[in-house]
Specification:
The protein is of the alpha/beta class. It is built from 14 helices and twelve strands. α9 packs antiparallel against α10, α9 runs parallel beside α11 and α11 runs antiparallel to α12. The chain is globular and about 60 Å long.
């Protein structure tokens, strides 16, 4: 099996991430670090570990190819039957590799493994979220129908994703580039008929959310990831490879539309701006419904900055904000009953 670490300017945490993996690997596990032309000491750190251990290989892009393509290059550089992603600041806890090895030995036909996980603060001293999935026991699902009856999404967090390497070789992944979730696209594209094991314990994978994380600070990235994940599902749902049930797809669209006022109004305070990419994405996903697109999606994504600022101020007023929230709830109930 292979653990791959796609990285870019990760010098602050990369050593700790690599150490968390190599300290529990054996000869049947390789660690592949794929650097996307970093400008800091990332390459030197990865090169150091590659020189020290035969289990570590270092791949460096000649120029920056972007997040999604670097994920794909990292996966395609692997040699193991299974590829386990790990972000440059994430930790595979002791016993994680043995857990995956045990799963594969007990379920030779398994195609995907979804590891539950927890989030900690930047220096790993405080748990921010103790578990993403609220399940008590490991589950084995024989196909997407079985899986989607209990879990309404595929994993997005990088170190929660394990899949067969051959899926990367047989997927036209370029269609998912720009979404920030190419790995979700590859998962869904090959999901029909696949066996999946979901690990209930969050103790094997730890992610960081430092105070300066984009998850807290970057409105642009927050909007792009929220809409990008939906874009992946939309692409697969419209394709001849679709394995996403109608109710799951509809639920995701409705959830995004319900949160769209929050995304645009409050993310704009953290730097969200409409871009040609976002414009095209909204048109692709929602443009088929004339009224929905032109009377909800288009206005909310095209307000001037002063209007976003005014709405934020009103939302924060006790009475006026309550009125706006009531209007939003009413529109949300109408959306739930509409065919969107």
């Amino acid at each position: 099996m292979s653990v791959c670490i796609p990285t870019y300017n990760g010098e602050a945490t990369l050593r700790q991430t690599i150490e968390s993996i190599v300290n529990q690997t054996s000869d049947d596990v390789e660690v592949v670090v794929c650097d996307d032309a970093s400008s800091d000491a990332t390459a030197a750190i990865a090169d150091e570990y590659a020189a020290r251990s035969a289990q570590v290989r270092f791949v460096r892009n000649e120029y920056n190819v972007g997040m999604d393509r670097n994920f794909a290059r990292a996966a395609l550089a692997c040699r193991g039957e299974y590829v386990w992603f790990c972000g440059q600041d994430d930790i595979l806890e002791p016993g994680a590799v043995d857990k995956l090895r045990q799963i594969v030995e007990c379920n030779p036909s398994v195609d995907y493994v979804y590891f539950n996980y927890r989030f900690c603060n930047g220096d790993l001293t405080r748990v921010v979220k103790s578990a993403f999935l609220g399940i008590a026991n490991d589950r084995h699902f024989a196909g997407p129908e079985d899986y989607f009856r209990e879990i309404d999404h595929c994993p997005t967090f990088l170190p929660s994703v394990v899949m067969r390497r051959k899926f990367w070789e047989h997927t036209p992944y370029e269609q998912f580039v720009g979404t920030h979730y190419v790995q979700v696209g590859v998962w869904l594209y090959n999901f029909a008929g696949a066996d999946t094991v979901v690990v209930a314990s969050p103790d094997y994978v730890t992610g960081r959310i430092p105070d300066d994380s984009w998850k807290l600070q970057s409105g642009q990235m927050l909007f792009e990831t929220s809409s990008g994940n939906l874009d992946v599902y939309d692409t697969v749902f419209r394709s001849n490879r679709n394995c996403v049930p109608q109710d799951i797809y509809t639920k995701m669209r409705r959830k995004f539309l319900w949160h769209l006022p929050h995304y645009t109004v409050f993310y704009s305070e953290k730097g969200f701006r409409r871009t040609p990419l976002i414009e095209a994405r909204m048109k692709k996903i929602f443009g088929g419904n004339f009224f929905l697109y032109w009377f909800w999606v288009w206005p909310l994504t095209h307000l001037p900055n002063w209007a976003y600022a005014a709405l934020r101020s009103i939302y924060r007023m006790p009475f006026a904000g309550g009125v706006l929230r009531a209007i939003r709830r009413t529109l949300g109930r109408l959306a739930q009953s509409a065919k969107i």
